[in-house]
Amino acid sequence: MMEKLLVEWLLVIGWTVVGCVCSILMGFSLWLIIKIFDRLTPQLDEFEELKNGNMAVGVLLAGMVIAFALVVSTAMRLL
């Protein structure tokens, strides 16, 4: 009985670590995608435009985040 409980706890801890690592990797990937987009559009400073209240840039960046989430969710369904 105690061994089964220990195995269950180890599984929970293991999946927690996997979830944390995946979250960190997804955050890094999203940051990388935004940085690549920033490099591809040198004439547009997205974050300065956001500070100035440009809603179009905000919608564009929100669309990038949503597209990223759709790709990740599709990949997660394959697991």
**Estimated helix fraction:** over 70%
SSE string, helices as H and strands as E:
HHH
* Number of helices in the DSSP assignment: 3
The radius of gyration is: 19 Å
The percentage of residues in β strands lies in: under 5%
DSSP strand tally: 0
Describe the biggest sheet?
Answer: none
List the helices and strands and how they pair.
Elements: H1 2-40, H2 46-51, H3 55-77
If you had to describe this structure to a student in words, what would you say it looks like?
- With 79 residues, the protein is mainly α.
- The protein has one domain (2-77).
- The chain contains 3 helices and no strands.
- It has helices at residues 2-40, 46-51, 55-77.
- The longest helix has 39 residues, at 2-40.
- The model has no long low-confidence stretch (mean pLDDT 91).
Condensed summary:
By secondary structure, the chain is mainly α.
List keywords for this structure.
3 helices; 79 residues; single chain; 0% strand; mainly alpha
